[in-house]
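Extended Data, panel c. Modelled sequence:
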Amino acid sequence: MTTTVLAAGNHFIHPKLFADAVREAAGDAPLTVRELRFPWPHTPFGPVGEVVEASGSEDEMIDALRGVEVCVTEHGPLTERILAHSPDLKLFCTSRGGPVNVNLEAATAHGVTVCYAPGRNATATAEHTLTLLLAAARGVGDTHTDLRKGVWRGDYYDYDNCGIEIEGTTVGLVGYGAIGSRVARTLAAMGAHVLVHDPYVAPDALTGIARQVTLDELLSRSRIVSLHARVTEETKGMIGRDQIAAMPRGSVLVNCARGALLDYDAACDALESGQLAGAGFDVFPEEPLPAGSRLLTAPGVVLTPHIAGGSQQVAHKAARLAAAEVGRYLRGERPAHCANPGVLGEPKP
């Protein structure tokens, strides 16, 4: 019997990337693959129905899912309304690090297995973090801007304006998951003294690379701090005015994780006062950045538009991870990364 699959891509992970990966993962299983392209990132993602960080519309998805048993996508929404109109759907694979575009409770109630793709962009985000960290530590943002304006400032070589090296510097990482651990290994290889605050990390995972400390100790000792935590009720706003004030004067702060972790007004105040000598930010409290944002004029800051997780390799990795779940489904195997194990009759981990 032929399985109908919807490959719902966008301008980052093209529908054909999904379709080709699914066909490869399916082997000899008979498939019919339909392709659909959503407008992200040319049009920012956002809420669709009751889910967040989705692209497209409920009506578009309902129409595309008619007669479809399996869907692979990155930002396609899966809401209660979509599920109610898609009785043939059995497997929904989102190639995100988490199923933020899915109503998991509704999917479980409708008997739809939801899979996701953890670690798909860990390498890309770690490398981008290091890019911003190095740029902020050496003042690349301001010097680049001046040169583009035709201004050559020799005073950047003054002692008080010089940046800092990584070798011999204490760097604190808040979070030691797939991304933070990669950043830590690179920094350790560069000769940094790496401190980590992560209550969930196993002590042996840090051996020879970093040392686990409290957040207070990390902040007070680290000349550079980089955020790698997930956003939870406990971590929202975890780095605010008091935490930045606890860092050594002239420190550097980097955030390629989530905007909700940081008080950006406090960061701007610290950049303007010199408490922070530099900062590198890829994520923000409001995206796109509004025209009047203080971040656009704050000194010493290097900004990128939430692109840390974007590389050509990530697109291929994500497509393969999602397609692998389709292959397991077709072979009757248990999914490797199931977001709602209750649908399989298993307890939630």
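Residues 70 and 100 are 18 Å apart (CA to CA). This feature is highlighted in the accompanying rendering.
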